[in-house]
Design goal:
Blueprint lengths: L11 H12 L10 H12 L3 E5 L11 E6 L3 H18 L3 E7 L6 H9 L4 E6 L12 H13 L3
Parallel strand pairs: 1-4, 2-3
Antiparallel strand pairs: 2-4
Helix pairs in contact: 1-5, 2-4
Length: 154
């Protein structure tokens, strides 16, 4: 289930599943086959760009948005910088920056498995801290931004 709101009413998993469904673009879940299974499905779909949806959580006070990419993946980093700027501008969020992740780092295998499946651009977005009520945004608003943004990726 991952992170959740302080009141326990919304988990990271459910939040992102609702957002992904609303966006209407192809998506893969880890329900059957874990990270490798989801990555394989993304490769089979023939997508060029993968945006893995997550939410941060820490202490109920941390805030901001960040996007993770594999260390040295400059094409993904360029997409991530543009996406993060768009998101932070739209929702008036603090940017925590694009983080390049090396072996053993948080999210490394999520990104690596999708990249190894043949996807050219691989991003893992942490748009806000789900345990901070002031940082949280509705999945409806988030999904509408994702749809607008991802629909325009060339």
């Amino acid at each position: 289930m991952g992170a959740q709101t302080l009141d326990g009413k919304m988990s990271e998993y459910n939040y992102n599943f609702l957002a992904a469904q609303r966006v209407g673009l192809p998506y893969a879940r880890r329900d059957f086959g874990g990270r490798k299974g989801a990555a394989k499905k993304m490769g089979q779909m023939g997508v060029d760009v993968s945006v893995e949806l997550h939410c941060n959580a820490y202490n109920g006070k941390a805030h901001g948005a960040e996007i993770l990419v594999l260390a040295g993946d400059y094409k993904s980093r360029a997409y991530a910088e543009d996406m993060l700027e768009s998101y932070c501008t739209r929702f008036k969020k603090r940017s925590r920056g694009v983080k390049e992740i090396g072996r053993g780092g948080r999210g490394y295998y999520n990104l690596k498995y999708v990249k190894d499946a043949g996807v050219q651009v691989v991003l893992l977005i942490e748009p806000f801290f789900i345990d901070n009520e002031d940082d949280y945004i509705s999945y409806l608003d988030y999904a509408d931004w994702l749809k607008d943004y991802c629909g325009g990726i060339k």
